[in-house]
Amino acid sequence: EDWLAMSVYRNIVWFLKGINEYTRNGFQAASKQFVDKDMEVAVAGRTFMITGAGSGIGKATALAIAKKGGTIHMVCRNKEKAEKAKADIVKETGNKEIYVHLLDMSEMQKVLEFAEGFKKKYKQLNVLINNAGCMLKQREVNSEGLERNFATNTLGVYILTKSLIPLLEKSSDPRVITVSSGGMLVQKLQSDDLQSENDHFDGTMVYAQTKRQQVVMTEQWAKAHPNIHFSAMHPGWADTPAIAMAMPEFHHAMREKLRSADQGADTVVWLSVSQAAVTLPSGCFFQDRRPVSTHLPFAWTHTSPEQEQKFMTRLEELSKSIQAR
Ligand SMILES: NC(=O)c1ccc[n+]([C@@H]2O[C@H](COP(=O)([O-])OP(=O)(O)OC[C@H]3O[C@@H](n4cnc5c(N)ncnc54)[C@H](OP(=O)(O)O)[C@@H]3O)[C@@H](O)[C@H]2O)c1
């Protein structure tokens, strides 16, 4: 079947690209082009919110920004892990402006309440880093009946970002960075089955779809909110708890080749603090400090502006239905 052949084609091209670029060697090759001076910035007085900052790429990002003096709001669901990560960061950096907020990003009402509360309490937010993410292999729904990969990676990110936009717009040099994935390259945006109810449930592909959705949201936000600098990015294949748990075979086979969490976080940090990042257009998808294509060659993953608009309208409707509860 044509569809199957296309899917196999996309996955093979993506994997070969990954072996070259997403690995530790890929990072080392790309880093030859990095400009060290880009990262030599002090960010004292600037405020950063990082979701999923208790482990992996989120924690590495928090640590790197804390070293530069930034105020950090860690948004995590697990209190013990979050407090431990905070203590590690304070100890290693001496920066005491690190705050923990407990939130389950897969529960939409809670995300909305948190964002609205944050907006009332704090006067500024310079950078929002949407890093928390999950790849659930079995179909699960949250208390609101929403599929949990979609709720965490797409609608939760949508609601958090949209609610915080007024606060970001009041703050200087505001930025929103969303940690997507190169895995999104195998998926074309779809918005007809956002709850993954219709077909056989393939968690890896549902995850990749939500990561495609993050890229489309980023492009659309960039157009709608020109005062904020939006980016999506791919961290590469980094050795983190998420990879070890969600993809144990992949993790085992690739363990020698995976990036460190710090290497995975490099582009997140660069997008968050460097001046170079904001000289590039808003709405791009980054890999190793460079904007890259959001489509594989000949992969038929492009969508029309109407399809993208329909997707955004659907998210707005879902978020309105949460607000109305
Ligand atoms: N590692 C890679 O190779 C790779 C590749 C492509 C993209 N990414 C993306 O990178 C981001 C960070 O992942 P990671 O690799 O660093 O793995 P990780 O260490 O497991 O980080 C994921 C974080 O998200 C948090 N999280 C998940 N569901 C949540 C929820 N419902 N509410 C609040 N927090 C939640 C996790 O919290 P708990 O600790 O409580 O689970 C964890 O802190 C994810 O968006 C992932 O999709 C990673």
UniProtKB/TrEMBL annotation:
It comes from Paramormyrops kingsleyae. It comes from the Eukaryota. It holds the Pfam family adh_short. This is Dehydrogenase/reductase (SDR family) member 12.
